Structure of SDR family oxidoreductase:
Amino acid sequence: MKKLENKVAVITGANSGIGLATAKLYLQEGAKVVVSGRRQEALDEVAKELEGDFITVKADVSKPEDNKHLIQEATNKYGKIDVLFLNAGIAPPTPTTDITVDHYTEIFDINVKGPIIAAKEALPHINDGGTILFTNSIVHQKGFEGYGIYSASKGALRAYQRVLTSEVKSRGIRVNAIAPGPIETPIYGKMGLSEDVIEEMGKSFAEQVPLGRFGTSEEIAKSALFLASEDASYINGVELEVDGGLSQI
Ligand SMILES: NC(=O)c1ccc[n+]([C@@H]2O[C@H](COP(=O)([O-])OP(=O)(O)OC[C@H]3O[C@@H](n4cnc5c(N)ncnc54)[C@H](OP(=O)(O)O)[C@@H]3O)[C@@H](O)[C@H]2O)c1
């Protein structure tokens, strides 16, 4: 028996990295998947490699009207939603001395406002007993230099998830989050850093991880499958660190 047979899953940031690996795994496990991203060309590319029952929907999570559109498209096509995976995010670093209002606004609009508004839009359409899953990060548990706004955004999201867990208790909806450590995805190339700096940063992160390496998107996708499936039926309100032990030392 497949773990998500006939379940409807909506995934944001699904054209790349963790979201894409999860879309592939959910499809393999029998889900109908709404694959969402902010760039049509990227969605068209991934549509060529995905197999199964899916649609793509272009939606910029920082725009409230796009979140509404995403949920409308999902429900028009598949009816009710079982799994809402709010994964889209950005992580550009900036030391506090260089923070600008634009930097702050961009990160908070995408990493905090986006998933909160998407959850609000989706709530009436999520089946009782469904699941809302977020991608956080271990950064808000640590103190990585230069990641002040990014860490604050994921910490804010974590605080919101505790409230959401209470708010949906009468409907049996489970709210969980994954906190990845350093995972090899395209996100590092999107941080506005030179290749040398990215390589140095990568080495330093890997050295700090007790398992001594970056994780893979597929390793996060397996956790996203576990938390969305009946295997995690009594797991609710948690933030699961999938980080090779980095948050624990
Ligand atoms: N990789 C890591 O080491 C790591 C560690 C901890 C947490 N995370 C978190 O994991 C999540 C996924 O990141 P990833 O590593 O898989 O990076 P990724 O490959 O860059 O994927 C991020 C996805 O989010 C999308 N996105 C960004 N802004 C968006 C917006 N405004 N509207 C809609 N989609 C948007 C990206 O679209 P584009 O392709 O158009 O940019 C991309 O599809 C993020 O929330 C990130 O903070 C990652």
